[in-house]
Design brief:
Layout lengths: L4 H22 L24 E11 L5 E6 L4 E3 L5 H7 L5 E8 L5 E9 L5 E3 L29 E13 L5 E6 L4 E3 L17 E11 L2 E10 L6 E2 L10 E2 L2 E2 L37
Parallel strand pairs: 3-5, 9-11
Antiparallel strand pairs: 1-2, 1-4, 2-3, 4-5, 5-6, 7-8, 7-10, 8-9, 10-11, 11-12, 13-14
Amino acid sequence: MQIPRPLISASVVALATLSEMSFSQAVAPPSDVSAPPAARGAVYDPQQFPSVRGELERLTLTRRGEIDGLILKDGTEVKISPDLSTQIAFAIRPGDRVTIHGLRAAALPLVRAVSITDDVTHRTVTDSDVSTPMNPPPVRPAPPRRGAPPQAPGASTEMTGRVRMALHGPQGDVNGVLLESGAILRFPPDQADHLASIIQPHQSLVAEGITVTNSLGTVVDVQQIGLARDRLVAVVPPRRPADDRGPAGPHRRPPPPARGPQAPPPPPEGLAPAPGSLAPPPPPPPG
């Protein structure tokens, strides 16, 4: 049986077309291998920074209850960005052996951490941008969802205890103390000199303020503090900078009060009065 040539040609063309379509569907085009910026790690290798190793004793908290650092068993204080609070809570726990890469302070047992690694689980938390300020301005909280009850603020309570050690900010300024009980007292850094005699190690004190307690610990945003209940001193909020601008603009010295019109001073003796001015009255006659 012979197949006509036109039919053979048409069958070959159809078979070639189907093969080309199948090949184009089986082989996917190459995807973009570059990861989005959010998925990339740190710009700089944390291994380049000096390392500190030790056993994690406890975490430190901000006045809002977020993790802002940790304390090693040898007393070294390690500072991290509060933005990493959740990652730190899941990566390490008290009692773990950790390796920290970061910058050491010159005169304090203080380290600004760039990365923290658990030596057993090898979980690592890395600050992806070491140039970002560690204390960013607070973000306005989102409004509560419809139907959810509003969040109640912390209650002002009293805390007593003995000071174990001072706590610092990333620049080395004192902004709180750790009590022997494990509770943390926080106050503005510009109040440290004013409270220096009260927050000395092994000193017993009494503090009142807004208390936050969660699974990580207890922290008090101090409003009053002293050596006894009848010797409390107020802790004022942070001072505004000198060039701070308020609703009425920058703070400036008020203008001097307006004065009424004053008579021009008399001309010096021996000189004629200025043109247009009144002549001085004649002297009174002798009596």
